[in-house]
Amino acid sequence: MKKMVTTLSVILMPFCLFGQLDYGQMINNFDATPADPNYWGYDASENSDSTLSFVNESYVSDPVSEGAGAMQLDYSAHNIEGWGGYAKIYHLYPNLPDDGTPALSGAWKLAPIAGALGVGPGPGDYSWWSNNEGDVTTRACLFDDEYVFNADGSFQNVLGSETWIEGWQGGDYNEDGTIDWQDEHCGSPIAPHDGTNPATWSVDETAGTITVSGLGAYLGLSKVHNSGEDGSPVDNTITYSYSLSADGNNMDVTISGFNGDAEWIFRFVKVQTSDPILSGTWKLAPIAGALGVGPGPGD
Q1: Which of 52, 100, 108, 270 meets the CB 3.0–4.6 Å disulfide criterion with 78?
Q2: How far apart are alpha carbons 35 and 292 in whole angstroms?
Q3: Are residues 254 and 149 in the same domain?
Q4: pLDDT, tens digit, for every residue of 138-174?
């Protein structure tokens, strides 16, 4: 039998993939070697011959027509391997849990701890103000608010009947003639920051940012955005920096640009959900005795 050898070299141009997939917008590119070593990979089956089938990946350092950042994959496969032998190339979207949705998907709340939100003169310094343990109770209407990143790319502020109202929203609440921190209180959400308007979210994992877009959409405190603290972001869009814990259940969100180098931090915990054992659709069993009545239990 004549032996056949197939060798394939592929040049991948820098590009972006935009998808209306089950988990909102994805953007992947090949502008530089990814920090995640599992970004690209390949598998060789137990029956494959590693000396015959292989995948080599490299980045074009001296591009001509390919363009900057092009990736090259050299793939070789032979038909003389054992039964069932194969080698395959695959691309991984980083930070996806087992169910295929981005790690941010789901509902989040401010962590019920001291320092869950704070502000200071620069990154990592929140000395101007941060909440204490007592504030978790005093501001319970804030700590129970949910920030929901839906898998379809939509975003929700779920505030319930009350949230934390500040003086810039509610005016002179204590009627002392001055609008200041003493006017802050739990009260009915005030439009447009009441969660009733449609909004979206997107994430740039390379830059480590989350963007929420929509009238009144926000994370942490409604007043804070990239150019001020008045609740009126440009184009109703706010971009935050974020970092996730290794288990994906805790997230620190920071934002700056509203006052020189000053920075706000919001520490979130993921809302854990579990399906009750009775969840689902039920029908009467199609059998004799599926329903009945009698003088007592079991009769």
Answers
A1: 52
A2: 65
A3: yes
A4: 999 999 999 999 988 999 999 999 999 988 887 755 5
